[in-house]
Write a structure and sequence with these properties.
Tetracycline Repressor, domain 2; 2 domains; 59% helix; DNA-binding
Amino acid sequence: MTQNDDDAVAVEPAQPGRKRDHSRDAKILDATLDVLAEVGAAGLTMDLVAARAGAGKATIYRRWTSKTELVIDAVAHMKRNQVDLKHLPDTGTLRGDLLGLFKPQSIEESERKLKIMTGLASLLSQDQALAEAANAAVVQPWAEAHFALMRRAVERGEISASADIDTLSQVIATMGAYRALVQRKPFDLAFLVSMVDGVILPALRRQPTEAPPDSTGRRPVPTTSRVDESPSPRRAASARKRSKT
């Protein structure tokens, strides 16, 4: 993301001893997300953000020296409403806990988040810092919450201690990001239920020693040791005597 010439502005240095007013940061970041949802990252300008936030462009530049920095902080700002790791659901079952994390959203809010992620899609592969911010804001909070819930399920004996919770705790959040960025579909309750019941729980409960299915979907039949069918020496001698008589 590059800074346009028409966004250049002379910024007066902050006066010595004057503290930055952080109360306006959240409003500016929310305005940035609104603009991202409307015009995407390519169409975002400091003028649009300033107008939406009701702030001067110089005020924004005193906080963020470029649009890239502003967008990165705005994406990180999305994390605030993701999940509270200190207050996770405790329903007594892993399924109930995973579904209990879901927060019903209005159609407008779901569409807004979807538009924000769509607006960022073209830049994530070009800007490593932005990609990391998006991962930290969208994927990691949910992955950490799912890991905590799965670990608790292991402790109460609901799933095996050998289950690969490191990997499986990232599946729902990663697929949710793919759904938003690539398929451009919202993360709704129906999608979450299908992931929990169709992917996560079966994978957690599968025995590690169980052979995976082959290309036809069939599982190999376990091999058993064959009984030695060769006759014993005594039986062989008895058989020779009978053949001579």
